[in-house]
TrEMBL record:
SUPFAM superfamilies: TPR-like. GO terms for cellular component: cytoplasmic side of plasma membrane. GO terms for molecular function: iron ion binding. It is found in: Cell inner membrane. It comes from Tepidimonas thermarum. This is Lipopolysaccharide assembly protein B. It holds the Pfam family TPR_16. Modulates cellular lipopolysaccharide (LPS) levels by regulating LpxC, which is involved in lipid A biosynthesis. May act by modulating the proteolytic activity of FtsH towards LpxC. May also coordinate assembly of proteins involved in LPS synthesis at the plasma membrane. Residues 24-382 are cytoplasmic. It is a single-pass membrane protein.
Amino acid sequence: MAFDLSWLLWALPLAFALGWLASRFDLRQWRLEGRQVPRAYFRGLNHLLNEQQDQAIDAFIEAVRHDPDAAELHFALGGLFRRRGDYDRAVRVHEHLLARADLPARERERAQHALAFDFLKAGLLDRAEAAFTALLGTRYDTDARIALLGIYERSRDWARAAEMAERLEGSDRGSFRLRLAHHRCEQAAALRQQGRTAEALALLESLVAHVPESARAWVALAEVRESLGELEGALAALEALATHCPAHVPLIAHSLAQWSLRVGSAERARQPLAAWAAQHEPSLDVTQALATLEPDAQRGRRHYLEHLRAEPSLVAATLWLAGVPLGSADEEALVRRALERAGEPLKRYRCAACGFESRQYFWHCPGCQGWDTYPPRRVEEL
């Protein structure tokens, strides 16, 4: 049987035509998808610039569907989820990136860094600690150590916090000496609660020798010495604070006055406090301490008058009126109660970072978790 080759004359052109049509279809599809991804991406960027996070997230989700291998889109989407507080979805996005075997090492570190902050923002401190620990030794090493330092502080693991602060001291992120001093003071406080006062004393004495600019260290050292009955040593610590940290003298004015009276030497406190008052703006605490050092109440009230001449103060006026009869006993009680109530909010301390107010002076703000954010002056004096 003879083989008829005539059909090849029809089959070859037909196959060529079908192949050409298939290639054109694929090319058009590729171009269409290529146009859709940038449009979705730029639409999301536009929403983001207009602070429309929900619309931006929808646009980026669409872009990721068309190009699931685009790492930048995943990072943008994960960042938006985190900013909106949708931490579960942010974690899933960044974990999806880490699961990709073809992700370059640099992008993998970036994804690990983003995932660690997802956990931190979500309050999952144990998972955040593990994620940041995995970044040690990478290009995110310093950022990871600072984040770990914050985690240790929030969990009140002061030993590890102090160790991390010591390692960060040589970094390019500034000095961590004062922050380290706070960690050591917290450790000393814990030792005192455990009855290990001698160890706390040794720790604080070493601390003030290495970080003399830490006001808290001197205050803590003075308190430990006073609890042990070493009033002379306690007064010496307060006097050292006045030398190294003069801005914090109002915090120790009352203790300095009381302890000086207990050792029978009011002049020991009067001289440094009077010298401080002459060189600085009026301080309610210093004025009140100077008044308590006077043997005569009338002479003590003069300090409040001097304060009022330099700076109008409702609290100082209330203290001055403490020795003045205001009428009958019932009337006097009403007036004094009203004055004290009006002046009470003015006696508080206010965080300079977040505005959190408290009657107690905090070295570590309960509101913003910042160290040394409280000025050592009352609200009325700010």
